[in-house]
Amino acid sequence: MAEQSTSSNVNITDAVLNQSPVIKDAENVTINYTQPPSTSSSDEDEWNSMRKLIKLCISYLEKEGKLRLQGVSAKEEIPVVHPAIHEIAYYDRDTVPVDERYDPKGQNELFKNKIKNEVCFQDLLDQKDKFISIVASAGSGKTVFSLRLAKAFSLLKRFCIHLKFMDANYEQPLTLRQLLLDNMFPGHSEEFYSTCFSWMQKNTDKIVLILDGLDQAQYSLEKISPKINYNACVPVKDLVFNLCRKHFFPNSLLIITSRPHAVLYLPELARPQVTYALGDLSLEDTKKLFLAFADEDLWRKINATSSQMLSMCRNPLMFQMIISSNTGPSEDIGDASTPTRLFATVMKNLTYSHNFQFPETMDELARKLQVLAFAATKHGKVVLTAKELRDEGVDPTTIHDIVVQLHCHRSPINSRLFEGNTKFFFCHQTFQEHLTASYVVYGMPVEEFQDFVETSLFQEHWTVVRRFVCGLLFDLESKTVSGDLLQKKEILKKHFIQQLEIISEKLMEQPGFRALRDKLLDLYACVGEGKDSSIATKAAEHFPTTILLPRLMNSNLVPGFCFVVKHVTKQLDGLSLGVCNLDANSFHEIASVIKELKPGQIGEMHINGNNLPPSNIDDVIGLLRVVRDRLLMWDCFIDDDGRRRDANLDERRKLQTALDKNQTCLEVRIDPDTTLRSQK
Fold first, then answer.
1. pLDDT per residue as tens digits for the range 378-404
2. For the chain, how many structural domains are there in total?
3. Contacts for 188 with CB less than 8 Å, ≥ 6 apart
4. CATH number (domain holding residue 645)
5. How many angstroms separate the CA atoms of 92 and 578, rounded?
6. Model pTM?
């Protein structure tokens, strides 16, 4: 057994190398952090070359892995935060979606019903000799996350190479050594590359390869490539395919990151064994990150005037957009209390922010992007080509990637732009939808607008765009607007109210029809975007006397639902929030509106099957005066471990006290076998 070094000069390089074949039975030795006194010449050459290579890799990771915001300097040390990570069942279907198809449901629905379990960052570091993929939508921080993974693997004494697909779109054939070493770390001798590659082939179980951004590859892996040897000079796609098949470095860990569609297209023989999906940051981590770049005063100001903006900061790309636009000369956050107002505020602040420099004004650029966004959404895609950008007068080589995200190749050897299959994406799908709606409202002629409203706007394809259109047009009360906008508002209002009436009446005839209920809730979301009380009053007149909210109630539907409910004056037979999986904030928002209704206005109400902390007991008590006959509330609270539970003894006492004070005939079912009633 090797003697353990007492030297304090311990580093990652020596730690990796001391696990090489020079040390026998490496799994059972205490690592010696000094070079062995006697080795063969070839072993010593590999040892010295690998020490140099590992230092180069770590230097690259240190440089690339730093989080930076455009034009904004960190005020303090940037905290380490991680997005939510879920293991998902990804290959459970035979067909795959069209390349980058536009999905009006948004990214929140991307992996619905496919989550197997939530994992932590450490779980990924514990992986060995596997092929795994990490998928996420644009702007979710895949590259930063993969660089952080690479650095963590290096600290765990594993040799890790991090390679971006956008830097590997070579047109000429290459060997595997050229791809991973020669071109990535140029300027060294043939002997250096040869000895390093020799060590890698002998130590495949010590290697981690992270290939970042499969969707940015300008070649297809759909077809099966032949098995090749280490020295073959072939197209890059064949090298990548053989890495996926584990023909190269069979005992290594291979990690590929990508937008979801590209991983789905991998042939069955080359598919990853495990797939993880990245989600948003937690609100706690978002605040930590926010305070590293901005003052707490700005956090409080945004939280007080437009809390939805902080919620959107949980997406790393939106975080960058919002922080950068609110730390420029214009500090006007505005009333960003709806997504429509939020995006309008961000776009306005980008106009004045010194952090963003465009070759034209932001207003001019926005008008061109609106046309492009509408055309893309109309044809059901989220991809733009360089030609489409140029045809609209947008220079694809100068536009800032914070508005349009450029996925192209800039070779470390040849810096020219490879355009071939280059794709351009709006930095976030919601930006595409907001720009599309802006074109409909501000750029579309009135006659075309009327036809669009009558034939297209109320189709599912335009769901999110419709919300923004309603937000832009219905929210015009305090603004000076042109005649065209007023005409469009009246056209939209007429057809919108017709839709409300038709769907509400059908739902009252078929209260359990989920598709109708979902359509109605979506219209309520549009009402909430526009904040027009006259339309909310009309919606309240047609509010179903019995309504069951959906399981997994999406939080973005809550504000619109509440805006309509507070205008409801008629008696309701039943309102079910049962098994909606509402969190504390959503339930509080709904309960705050309901408790202001008339006493006994709701016959029966269900709140069972939610995720409420003990603090929500006051919201539940507030409902007691409004519900007339029965309130079902078992399994509506959660314990410290996140498991659902019934009301505990203290909560039961509070409920009983409130019932006695109200002196109603209301029955409160706190579990299937226990009912509380007023005792006075």
1. 988 877 877 888 899 887 766 654 455
2. 2
3. none
4. 3.80.10.10
5. 30
6. 0.70
